[in-house]
Amino acid sequence: MAVNNDEKEQIKPIGHNELAHKSLLQSDALYQYILETSVFPREHPCLKELREMTEKHPRNLMATPADEGQLLSMLIKLINAKNTLEIGVFTGYSLLSTALALPSDGKVLALDVSRENYELGLPIIEKSGVANKIDFREGQALPLLDELLQNENNKGIFDFVFVDADKDNYLNYHKRVLDLVKIGGLIGYDNTLWCGSVAAPPDAPMMDYVKRLRGYVIELNKYLAQDSRIEICQLPVGDGITLCRRIS
Ligand code: SAM
Ligand code: CA
What we know:
alpha/beta, Rossmann fold, 10 helices, globular, binds S-adenosylmethionine, binds calcium ion
């Protein structure tokens, strides 16, 4: 069947750059507008320093963008979170956003398989005056979560959980995190739009890591949509964040 020019335009394959793009908005200019108008003017100076330090890191694409850090901060304050968990720290942008948003007696338990990148950000976190709220534990997150769950007293202790680590384990994290967050508490699963690849044809050109993990993110999204223990809201902020409120 012949394809006319208009149709060709609509089915044009998604380019490499589009799938590796940091924002899902329609243009870079619009994203820049949000950052410059609403985000950067209110960004804590230590968050700014941490962001600028992380920009020089070869894996800087892993960092939570500043607009998403602002969202996390807003959510933590709205739900009056006091005790939170983060899985996947890297240099600590989301962790510092969290620690700054928590009340002075708040705590965040932060898990990452590697301490090395956390230590790059640590001097800045210490300068910010909120390092006392952070309990960083190095190791694979799954066994650390299982260890927490061995103690019945840890069930339902977290008000907020931010999951931003290995995407192929998100469903394994979900099983455990649901027991650790309180009923009425909130979980944020990050990167649930996976550079837009979740809606792209499987043969669309995409970075190798995007292609390798895309199926896991699609499975997670399907699973969360039918899980009656939670209410969900998937937001196109950053690379997509799915908020889950535990209801049972
Ligand atoms: N939230 C971070 C931020 O704001 O910059 C970004 C986290 S980065 C996308 C993912 C992190 O998950 C990396 O630091 C990596 O070491 C960690 N990670 C990957 N697999 C892990 C695992 N199995 N257990 C714990 N941490 C893991
Ligand atoms: Ca992320």
